[in-house]
Structures are given as structure tokens and as C-alpha cells.
Amino acid sequence: MKAAVLNFPGSNCAEDLLWAVGPIAGAHAEIVPATATDLTGYDLVLVPGGFSYGDYLRSGAIAKFAPVMPALRAFAEAGGYVLGICNGFQILTEAGLLPGALQWNRDLTFICEPEPLVVENATTAFTRRYTAGQVITLPIAHGEGNYYADDATLTALEAHHQVVLRYQHNPNGSCRDIAGITNEAGNVMGMMPHPERAVEALLGGTDGLGMFESLMEVCDGAYA
Amino acid sequence: MYKAKIFVNYKPSVLDPKATVIQQTLTRLGQTNVDSVMVGKYFELVLQGNEAAVNEQVAKLCSEMLANVNMETYRYTLEEVEA
């Protein structure tokens, strides 16, 4: 698997993601700046957390217009795998690659803590190493992770099994406890929790490793 | 030239925690007749061009950038200003 880790001005999780998907999970991975205009040759594009362009206007609102975005859109439309984490999730919703939006946490606090999550859909390319209903613990670290979509959109998400992860104890007010979703085609995923921060026992847990292993399995047939 | 005054607000269906905190604080201060609080954003843009073209352009800028139409609504006024 060849993975690109996008890097916007203000991204601060690109190196963590590179470490998780590269040396830990075993992919060929490299950092790709937001000024790149071509993403051909990659199997997976990771959109990292942080504060792209200072999160001015809204989280992800400026990143949506970064030079790399037309290439990311073309990559996703061609079926390439895209995983946006935290600010990456916010960027993907702003760009219209995923439905809904992320707004301020219900209690207006920046929350940084391990959070138990229920794997709702274990058939996706991102979660096939887990089992449906499995509870995993991943760190969250966000001020604007309160997922919002109108009722029609939420109903459609659930009807198409696009809700992949739910909070067990909703920390931020997200509609229907949503922590992570895919697009309808299933090749683009966004999530607020940080799997890349849970890939080694030294980091406090390895529950996030399954996401990168799932993608390795889908792209390379590894770990079969 | 035209000055666009643009107001962006959350949709009524979105619970805005910042507005809730402001209203709770007002209530605590004795301002008990404040029925609702809405927090929004205000932009002013000065644009060159004729009114029809500027109107179309501002609508596009609002829906594509200044507002996230998934959770926000926008409205604006245009007024002619001296160059």
C-alpha cells in the first residue's frame, strides 16, 4: 500500500499518522504538501488533524480551497481510499466529500481524553479488522467535534450503514452519538477520534492499529 | 462599486452552545425577559462591478465559502458606494 499523508499549514498530526501507517502498519508512506496537485499512484490519502490555516472562518473552511483539493476530490471520485481524522474530518465535510458538519462541543470545552467507541460497521475498508459491536478506546482531542446533520441526512446515513463509529458516552453532543462516518460509496471516511495515537502499547493502547491494518489488508491482502 | 453586508447564522435546528451560555448568563444577571440569543458572523465586502453581477457573485461566495450551508444560513444586502 502506498499512502500519502497530506500536510496543510497548521496540521499537527501528519508525523504521527506517517509513523502509524508507515513503520507501524507497514505501508510505504510519505508526507504530501497541500500545494501538491497530483495524487495518482497512491492507494490511500490520509488527511491529518490540527488547525489547518488557523481554522479561520470555520474548521476546514480555508483548507477546502487548498491547491491539493481538486486532486483529492478526483482521487476520491475514482474510488481511492481517503481517511480524514479530526481536522481532516472537518476538512472532508467542508469540501463536501462527506455529509454534515462539525460544530463546537456541547460544553464549549476542548476535550482531550481516551474515549470508548462502538464499532457499528465492521465491513468497511477502514474497520474490517474489528468486529461489529466491538468497543475500542481511542483518544479524542478537539473543541469542534460535535457532529451535526439534518434529520434526513442522519436517516440516510443510518439506512446505508455509513455510521461506522459511535461514542459510547457522547462527550461532545454529536447527533446520534456519531464519531465516524463514510460516504455512501464507502471509500471516504471521517472520524474525530485519533487512531494514530493508539498504535503502540507505549502510547497507552493499540486499539487504533486495526484501522491501518484494515486498509493494508484491503490494498495489499496483507495479514490475510 | 457595491458594499455587501453579509450575515451568517446557524440554522434554527442547530443548537448553538455559545448562544445558550450567553442567554444563561443574561438570565443570571437578571435579564429574564431575553427570550432568545442568536450568535452569528458579519462580513463586509466591497466589490467592483454592476449590481446584477455582484449580486450573483456574493450569493456564490456565501454558499461556497462564507457560510457552511449544512448548518448555517446567510442573507445580505447590497448598497452602492463611491469608488
UniProtKB/TrEMBL annotation, chain A:
Location in the cell: Cytoplasm
Keywords: ATP-binding, Cytoplasm, Glutamine amidotransferase, Hydrolase, Ligase, Nucleotide-binding, Purine biosynthesis, Transferase
GO biological process: 'de novo' IMP biosynthetic process
Catalysed reactions, as listed in the record: L-glutamine + H2O = L-glutamate + NH4(+); N(2)-formyl-N(1)-(5-phospho-beta-D-ribosyl)glycinamide + L-glutamine + ATP + H2O = 2-formamido-N(1)-(5-O-phospho-beta-D-ribosyl)acetamidine + L-glutamate + ADP + phosphate + H(+)
Any single Gene Ontology cellular-component annotation: cytoplasm
Main subcellular localisation: cytoplasm
Assembly mode: Part of the FGAM synthase complex composed of 1 PurL, 1 PurQ and 2 PurS subunits.
Role, per record: Part of the phosphoribosylformylglycinamidine synthase complex involved in the purines biosynthetic pathway. Catalyzes the ATP-dependent conversion of formylglycinamide ribonucleotide (FGAR) and glutamine to yield formylglycinamidine ribonucleotide (FGAM) and glutamate. The FGAM synthase complex is composed of three subunits. PurQ produces an ammonia molecule by converting glutamine to glutamate. PurL transfers the ammonia molecule to FGAR to form FGAM in an ATP-dependent manner.
Protein name (record): Phosphoribosylformylglycinamidine synthase subunit PurQ
Organism: Lacticaseibacillus nasuensis JCM 17158
From TrEMBL, chain B:
Main location: cytoplasm
Domain of life where this protein originates: Bacteria
Catalytic activity: N(2)-formyl-N(1)-(5-phospho-beta-D-ribosyl)glycinamide + L-glutamine + ATP + H2O = 2-formamido-N(1)-(5-O-phospho-beta-D-ribosyl)acetamidine + L-glutamate + ADP + phosphate + H(+)
One cellular component term from this protein's GO annotations in UniProt: cytoplasm
Keywords, sorted A to Z: ATP-binding, Cytoplasm, Ligase, Nucleotide-binding, Purine biosynthesis
Top-rank EC class of the record's enzyme: ligase
Matching PANTHER family: PHOSPHORIBOSYLFORMYLGLYCINAMIDINE SYNTHASE SUBUNIT PURS (PTHR34696)
Name of the featured protein: Phosphoribosylformylglycinamidine synthase subunit PurS
EC nos: 6.3.5.3
Functional note: Part of the phosphoribosylformylglycinamidine synthase complex involved in the purines biosynthetic pathway. Catalyzes the ATP-dependent conversion of formylglycinamide ribonucleotide (FGAR) and glutamine to yield formylglycinamidine ribonucleotide (FGAM) and glutamate. The FGAM synthase complex is composed of three subunits. PurQ produces an ammonia molecule by converting glutamine to glutamate. PurL transfers the ammonia molecule to FGAR to form FGAM in an ATP-dependent manner.
Gene this chain is encoded by: purS
GO biological process: 'de novo' IMP biosynthetic process
Higher taxonomy: Bacteria, Bacillati, Bacillota, Bacilli, Lactobacillales
Subunit structure: Part of the FGAM synthase complex composed of 1 PurL, 1 PurQ and 2 PurS subunits.
Subcellular localization, as worded in the UniProt entry: Cytoplasm
SUPFAM superfamilies the record matches: PurS-like
Similarity-based family: Belongs to the PurS family.
Residues that span the membrane, as ranges: none
Entry GO MF terms: ATP binding; phosphoribosylformylglycinamidine synthase activity
Pathway noted in the entry: Purine metabolism; IMP biosynthesis via de novo pathway; 5-amino-1-(5-phospho-D-ribosyl)imidazole from N(2)-formyl-N(1)-(5-phospho-D-ribosyl)glycinamide: step 1/2
